[in-house]
Specification:
Gyrase A, domain 2, 25 strands, 13-stranded mixed sheet, four-stranded antiparallel sheet
Amino acid sequence: MLLVLLATSLCTGAVRKPKLVVTIVVDQFRFDYLTRYRADYTGGFARLLTRGAVFTNARYMHVPAITAVGHSTILTGAIPSISGIVGNDWFDADENAHVTSVSDAGTKLVGGKEGIGASPNRLLVSTIGDELKMSGLGKPRVVGVSLKDRSAILPTGHSADAAFWFDTVSGNFVSSTYYMKQLPAWAKEFNAMRSADKLKGMIWLGHKLPDDPAKLYMDLEKTPQGNELVEAFAERALAEEQLGRHDGTDLFTVSYSSNDYVGHEYGPESPEAHDIAIRTDRMLDRLFTAIDRQVGAANVLVVFTADHGAPPLPEANIARNMPGGRLDPVKIRATVQDALVKRFGAGEWISGHYDLAIYLNRQLIAQKGLDRAVVQREAARALAALPHIFRVYTMDAVSRDETLHDEITQRVVNGYNLRRGPDVEFIPDPYWMVRTPPGITHASPFNYDVHVPVIFMGAGIKPGRYHTSITVNDIAPTLATMLEIETPSGSVGRVLSEILVE
């Protein structure tokens, strides 16, 4: 969920720019978590809901609704067809290899054990942080923190001073040579405390963390303690990087990932999801207190959102006579593979299957002298014949505009970068998901996956509830207008002028 706290003050009739913009993303935080658990909130969420401009109908306008794509949207205002971030993973035809949204073989990990680092090089457009850096307005500092590398890197952009994330191999917060040669002294000191190691054997709602570090660092991410680690590191970064005390406006992005891991494991209506939501409320209160103490509430701008939503557990839906079920990803891949072998002959026809996307083996297609559009159509025909497949799209059909024209299709098209997009993309029926038991996954264009909170808070903002439909893409141009900087290069959103004090 993304929280941008904006506090400004009036000076000779004009709204003064904030010294600090804080963007907070709570991963997989459905909008209805704010209303479902409202009576339990007394901290950060309560503050946002009572002092902020709360948009009740904010949605993403792309497929797939997943972490990297959402995080790349919030501060760029771009859709994947423009930003180039088409998934957490994809098969890159130019590199002829599987890549992630932030993988970069030209970098090395900093602060962990030896390994490849990460960078924003695959992001094709600018962010609010980049535009702050290029504006010539002071010397802004831009820093991002998260458990996940993509969640720390993509919101901050190309020009960020630093991005830090948690490494499940070493148990450290790490970075990349893209940003620095070594961690700053304060980050080394934080890692030396071995905070993650102290969680061995911790019990949360009956779930016990293992003693083995190899398992501990992975498992702690799906408990509230993963968020607590990020919070402690974020507060240290806030102080040590002196955010909000530089010439110009600084940008600090903080993404809390553990809500997502909990949701995947137990479902959005579980006691675990409820508990971590309440704990997140308390945790955000501590973050706000630290920010107020360092910068002063009148000098901070805050916006809050999530990178995507989540569907209910299929089994829970079935129990209440609602649609829902599971599709086996192995069967989906085998269906396409078998159909293409039957039609075109032997070979490994699939280069990659990620979420709802299937990438075909373009080298094999070329070797056999086949028309790629014909192979795409055969793959799509095989998928469409499966039960509970709502729609199937091919890159050829999307590029030719030979698709149904409705909102669902528009979200698919918005997600289709014609250089990086899949050969075939399929949409399961509503409430059906590509995952075997247990838990849930997300990616679809339906409201439960794309409806998220958006809240702006601070001086210069008109508090209240706003029921107009907006998109998450509207955050970036609104911030750019308030900060008097250029709108990020790929933004397709509008300025939310209705919440701005004149």
